[in-house]
Amino acid sequence: MKKIKIVTLILSIMLISNVSGQEPMTLDLKSAREYALNYNRTIKSSGLAVDKSQELLWSTIAAGLPQINATTDYTNAMGAKIKIQFDENLPPTEIPIKPSSNFNLQLGQLLFNGSYLVGIQTAKLAQKLSEKNLEKTEQEVVSQVTQSYYLILVSEESLQILNNNKENLHAIYKKTEPLVKVGIIEKIELDQLSVQVNSLDNSLKAAERQLEMAKNLLRVQLGVTAETELKLTEKLSDFITAHLSDDAKLTFTPKQNVDFQLLEVQEELTEKQINMQKAAYLPTVTGYYNFTKKILKPAFDMAPAHMAGLQMNIPVFSSGERRSKVRQAKIELETTKNNKALAEEQLNIQFKQLQFYLNSATESYETQKKNIEVSREVYQNLKRKYEQGMISSLELTTADSNYLKAESDYLMAVLEVLQAKNELNTLTGKILNN
Q1: Strand duo 93-96 + 81-84: pairing
Q2: Is the residue at 73 inside a domain?
Q3: Of 392, 387, 404, residue with least CA distance to 171
Q4: Which long-range contacts (CB under 8 A, 24 or more apart) does 260-267 make?
C-alpha cells in the first residue's frame, strides 16, 4: 500500500512539473502568420468550402456520364385467374396468373443538353470563386495577426516604460521620506509624489489588462487555447526601421485587390447564367439500354430481354417564361458590371487615402521621436534638480506626466505607421508576401 502511494505521489509530481514547465509559444511575425494560415479556424472553414466546390464540380460532370441502375421485383397475384370467354354459349377459359420475378438493368447516357455543358463551366467558376474567397480569408487573417502582433509589442513597451517610471518614482519617494521627517521638505511634497505613484499603479494595471486582451486576440487568430503562453521575439524598432529604410514606391491597380478579383469571377458567373437560360431553348437528347431477365416467367410473356432507344425532349412553348429568365440574367449582369466599376473607383480612392495616411503617420512619428527625446532630457534634468532640492515635487510630477505622455504618443505614432503600411499591403494583395 505504501509503494502504491509513493508511485502515485511521484506521478503527480511529474505531471505538475510538465504542466508548470510548459514552454511558451515563441513567435516572430513570420512564424505567427504561418501558424495562423495552418490552424486558424476561419481559414479552415474556407478551405472546406473549396473542397466542397470540388465535389460539386465532379457531381455536375458525373450527371452527364453513364448512369447504371438495377432493379428486381417479385409479383404474386394470390391465386387470381384471367377469364376469357370466346363464345357466349361456352364457359369462359380460365388462365391462372403465375407469380413472376424480374431483374432489370438499365444504362442511361446523356447525349446532348445545353444546360449541362454550361453547368460544368459554372461549377468550375464556382470552384474558382471559393478559392478566391479562401485567399481573401487568408489575407484578412494574416492582416489581423499582423495588427495584433504590433499591438502586443506596443503594450509590452508601454508596460515596460511604466514599470521603469514607477521604479524611479519609488526611489525618489524613499529618498524624500527622511527629508520630510527632519523637516527639510514639507509633507505636501511627499503627498504629491504618493499621488503620482498611485496613479502609475493604476496605469500599470490598465496596461497589463490591455496586454492580456491583445494576446487573447492573437490566440484566437492563431487558433490556440486561452492557456497558451505567447512570447514575441521581435521589437517595434525592428519594424519601424525596416519601414523607414524601404524606399520602394507602392503602385496599385484594382486587379491586385482580392475583392475586385471576386467581382470579376462573379461577372463571369453572371455571364454563364445568361448562357444557362439560353440553353433552356435547346433540346435534350438521351440514350438508353435496358436488359430484363425473367427469373419467374409468367405463362404469357412477349416482353423482349434487350431494348435500346433514344429520347429527345424539345421545348416548344413556355408563354415567355424562358425569354423573361434570359432578360433577368442580362439585368443581373449589368448590375454586376456597375458594382465592379463602382468598386474600381472606390479602391483607387482608398489607395490614395491610405498613402496619405501613411505619409501623415510617418511625419507624426518623426515629430514624436524628437518630442520624446526632449521630454526625456527635461525629465532627467528636473529629476536631478529635485534631488538637489532646487525644485518642488509638483514640477517633477508635471515633468514626469509630460514624459509619459510623450512616450505614449511616440508608441501610438509607431503603431499608426505600421498599421497604415499593413492596410496598404492588404489592399494591394501583398500582405501574404511580406
Answers
A1: antiparallel
A2: no
A3: 387
A4: 260/340, 260/343, 260/344, 260/347, 261/132, 262/129, 262/132, 262/133, 262/136, 263/336, 263/339, 263/340, 263/343, 264/340, 265/125, 265/128, 265/129, 265/132, 266/129, 266/336, 267/333, 267/336, 267/337, 267/340
The residue behind cell 523637516 is 183
What is the grid cell recorded at 123? 461549377
**Three-class secondary structure of residue 257 per DSSP:** coil
For residues 151 and 411, give the distance between their C-alpha atoms in angstroms, rounded to a whole number: 10
Show the domain range for 267: 25-64+113-147+216-234+249-280+315-433
CB 254 within 8 A of CB 346: no
Q: State the total domains in the chain.
A: 1
Q: Provide the β-strand partners of residue 107.
A: 68, 289
CATH code of the domain covering residue 141: 1.20.1600.10
Residue 360 domain-assigned (yes or no): yes
Q: Which candidate, 427, 428, 421, places its Cα nearest to that of 146?
A: 421
What confidence tens digit (pLDDT) does each residue in 365-375 have? 999 999 988 98
Helix (H, G, I), strand (E, B) or coil at 369: helix
Residue 297 lies inside a defined structural domain of this protein: no
Q: Is 91 helix (H, G, I), strand (E, B) or coil?
A: coil
Cell 469571377, residue? Answer: 265
In a domain, residue 264? The reply is yes
Let me know: does 324 contact 306? Beta carbons within 8 Å: no
Q: CB 244: neighbour CB atoms within 10 A?
A: 12
**What pLDDT shows up at residue 18?**
43
Q: How far apart are CA 252 and CA 346, in angstroms?
A: 13
**Long-range contacts: 164-167, Cβ < 8 Å, 24+?**
165/200, 165/400, 165/403, 165/404, 166/197, 166/200, 166/201, 166/204
Question: pLDDT digits over 102-120, tens only?
Answer: 899 999 999 999 999 999 9
Give pLDDT, residue 181: 73
The rounded distance, in Å, linking the Cα atoms of 200 and 407 is 14
Q: In whole angstroms, what is the distance from residue 221 CA to residue 232 CA?
A: 15
